[in-house]
Every structure is written in C-alpha cells, then in structure tokens.
Amino acid sequence: MHDKTLTEQASLLKARSISSVELVDHYLERIARLNPDLNAYLCVDEEGAKSSAQAADKALAAGNAGPLTGIPIAQKDIFCTKGIATTCGSKILQNFKAPYNATVVDKLAQSGTVMLGKANMDEFAMGSSNENSFYGAVANPWQRDRVPGGSSGGSAALVAAQLASAATGTDTGGSIRQPAAFCGITGIKPTYGRISRYGMIAYASSLDQAGPMARTAEDCAVLLQAMSGHDEKDSTSSTLEVPDFTATLNDKLDGLRIGIPKEYFGEGLDGDIADAVHSALAELEKAGAILKEISLPNQSHCIPAYYVIAPAEASSNLSRFDGVRFGYRCENPQNIDDLYTRSRGEGFGDEVKRRILIGAYALSAGYYDAYYLKAQQVRQLVSNDFTDAFNEVDVIAGPTTPTTAFKTGEKTDPISMYLNDLFTVSANLSGLPGLSAPCGFSEGLPIGLQLVGPVQQEARLLNIAHQYQQITDWHKHTPEGIA
Ligand code: GLN
C-alpha cells in the first residue's frame, strides 16, 4: 500500500478497495518499525489519526469524498496543531501545545486528510541539514549517515521512506526544495502569498511560504490545491483566484521556452549534478521545449543578501519567545533580566542564537543602512533579473543544490552550510514559485532538478514536472531498507 502514490491511493480509497483505517494502521506500523532509525517524526498522533480515518471512511462510504479524503499525511512541526505538541524543532517550545490550528492544518483536515503526526525540522526552520533540531538529526533514508537536507528534513525523509503519503514543508530559502532534492522526492514552494502563513511559526515573514512534499508532481498538485487560497487571518495571502492545478498537468510542452542561467553551471556545482540536469533538459527538449541560455547577473549576491534579510526578520520574530508568555522558562529566575536572559539562553540552540545576533546587529542604528538596506536593494536587483529573464523565457531550470546529500556532521562552519542554498534563495527573495523534482543519482544519492516560474505560475511548473515524470522514472526509485 505504501509504495503507491497519493493519487493511486486516493483511487483505491474511492473504489473502497482499501479503507483509510487500514491505510493509517499500515503507516502506523511502519512508523513504529522504521522511524526510530530515521527520527523523521517528532510525535505521532495515533488516536487522532484513527478517529480521522474513521470519519474519512464514513465520507467515502457516503460518496462525499474529495481527492484527499482518507489520505495520511505528516505536518512539519512548524505548523500549530491544536492540543498537539508544536515544537518548531526547539527546546524553547518543548512543552508547547498550540491553542489553535494553522490555516494549512485546518484546510488539509477539511479536505479529509488524516494527520499521522508532526515532522522533525531544523530549529525554527534555520538550517540546510536538519542537524539543528533540538530533538536530534534526521537520517537520509538513501544513506543513513547522510543528512536529509533542511529545514523540512523530517518531512522529506518520511515521504522518501514511505511513512506517509505526503507531508507539508515550509521554504524560506529552500527548505522544501533542498530536502526534496536530497531525498529524491518532489516539492513545490508556491508564490509568496499563495498559502496562508497563519499559525505557521514565523522565521522570516517576507520569505516564508508553505508547500507540499510528495512522491510526484501530480500528488503535489492535489495537495497544493487544498492548501492554497486567501485567508482573512493573513493579510499577505493572495486574493487572486486559485487555478485548478491538476487541470493542466497533461498539457504538452511544445514551444515551452526554458531558460538555463549560465551562472548556475559555474564553480561549486558538482559534475554529476550538472550532467544529470543537462540530461533532464535534453529530455524536456525532446518533449518539445526550447532551451535557451540566459543570465541572472546578480546570482552571486543572493546568499549574502538572504543571510542579512532572513536573520534580520528572525531576530524580530523570535523576540516573542521571552519565557513569559509561553514556552520554556528557566528555573528560579532572580529578576526579569535574568528570566529573559536564561530562558532564551537555555531555550535556543546555537544556530538560532547566531541568526538573532546577526539580525539584531544588521538592524542596529549604525549598521542598518550598510547591511539591511543594502540587502533590500540587492533583493530588488535579484527580482529585476527574473523579470528580465521572463521576458525571454517561460520558466527557468537548473540544479536544486550544488551537491548531493552530505554526511551528518561533515559541515561544521556556518558559511559552508549556507552555500547549500546557492540556487534556492533567489526564488524566495523574489517571491517566485520553485519546484524540485528527482532527475538522477550520483553514487546512490538523489539529484534534484529545479524549476522556477513567474509569479502565480505554479500550474506551469507542476505541468512540466508531471510531463517529465511521464517520460522518466527517477521519482519511482526507492531507498533500500524500507520494505
Ligand atoms: N537553509 C536556509 C536557512 O537556513 C533556508 C531555510 C528555510 O528555507 N527555512 O535559512
């Protein structure tokens, strides 16, 4: 059952060949057996899952089923779930039970999905390897001594290991696409504002966006449909009508203009990845697309700009964790300063502290113009590069990551970790949709192909990835040891 895609499982559920209760029990057994080695789930809501599955089976029996009714999923632990632990991968929220659901959680529940549990992640979504979780690193199912990517590393690993039909992720600078690439699955970060951020714990509010992670582009399309739409509780959520993402999956690619940024194929890119991406592009060309070299002249400034803007916003967003209102509080505070200092000092991990310090520094009076303002100007230049490129091409394609999954513990200095985000942060800086789909292997480790499109063009990206998945089978490979 677990080897089927979400869409295939939905057909079986609809035909009543399997029930949601059976599917949920099946995954619960797999989680109990396989999760201890992977550490992909932080908590499993067995009771909640069983009762939602029963309700889904009733709806299915009554003929009221939608495309997601009875489908078991995991939620990244950044989403508030009412009455269920919501830790954001941090000690500071260790005992926090959210008093309400994130809009994404409500919407997916209303669509009939069954939440199996919460997925491990880098603390406050800061990281590219999932090694920054207070609750321990996640193992990559393809090679257990490798990282699954981050920050949605738990989500990616559990989808790759088939411990749920799909999962949610969030992407501030690549956290859906990079782990999707490292774990050989498909993930899409939609246009900024496509999905409500209400109840999604904020990291860098102008960059954060939720999205689905699944085995195929088709599965992602179904999930994205359920997650998208305006929400009056998030004023930055788009009021534009949500298109039918599945309706155009089968469109042909004839005449599609794909831009290949020359800056993506320079120094730092692993040779096997370059080869795999070029082969993928050749497949798309055979399917009717037209390839065109383009330039994104400000590409080399993306990482420095991102690593000023994201920490600046984080330092502001994380000021709410003060040991007073909710979350961890130190023992026996002597006075209010001691309470703040020790609660935050003991509650946050090193990377989070580093970001808060960098952000506070960049925003401080004497440095604001030199760092934050400059980074915002660079952000505009990066965005202009895309606007220019989309005058010439319909979408942009390239590698998702410069390397395949690296070894746990291998990257010790923060800068080398940040460089993993080389190809992903620009879509966040510009608010554009980006997708990663499997396009090959290097020494047994998956490689991701990234597609970036103009604003609101998720349907196009899903269409291209779906067409690619009709002519290739990279997305069908599965790791060993997950039977
Ligand atoms: N790796 C990036 C960071 O650490 C992106 C994280 C994300 O997208 N949440 O900030």
Structural key phrases:
13% strand; binds glutamine; globular; 483 residues; alpha/beta; Amidase signature (AS) enzymes; eleven-stranded mixed beta sheet; 11 strands
Description of the structure:
This protein has 483 residues and is α/β, with parallel strands linked by helices. It has helices at residues 6-14, 20-38, 46-61, 103-110, 153-160, 177-183, 217-227, 271-286, 302-317, 336-347, 350-363, 369-392, 414-418, 425-430, 458-471; strands at 41-44, 72-76, 114-119, 166-170, 186-189, 210-214, 257-261, 290-294, 395-399, 434-442, 445-452. It has one domain (1-483): Amidase signature (AS) enzymes. Helices cover 38% and strands 13% of the residues. The chain has an eleven-stranded mixed beta sheet, with helices on both faces. Strand 7, helix 8 and strand 8 form a beta-alpha-beta unit. The mean pLDDT is 97. Bound molecules: glutamine. Residues 125-128, 151, 171-175, 203, 310, 421 line the site of glutamine.
- What is the CATH top level name? Alpha Beta
Proportion in helices: 25-40%
- The main sheet orders its strands as 1-3-2-4-6-5-10-11-9-7-8
**Sequence of secondary-structure elements:** HHEHEHEHEHEEHEHEHHHHEHHEEH
Average pLDDT reading:
97
CATH architecture: Alpha-Beta Complex
- The SS-based structural class is alpha/beta
What's the count of strands?
11
Number of helices: 15
What is the straight-line distance between the termini? Answer: 11 Å
- How would you name the CATH homologous superfamily? Amidase signature (AS) domain
**Low-confidence segments, ≥5 residues, pLDDT <50?**
none
Q: What is the fold named in CATH at topology level?
A: Amidase signature (AS) enzymes
Radius of gyration, in angstroms, nearest whole number: 21 Å
Strand content range: 5-15%
Which cofactor or ligand species appear? Answer: glutamine
Number of domains: 1
* Largest β sheet strand count, sense and barrel closure: 11 strands, mixed
The best one-word shape is globular
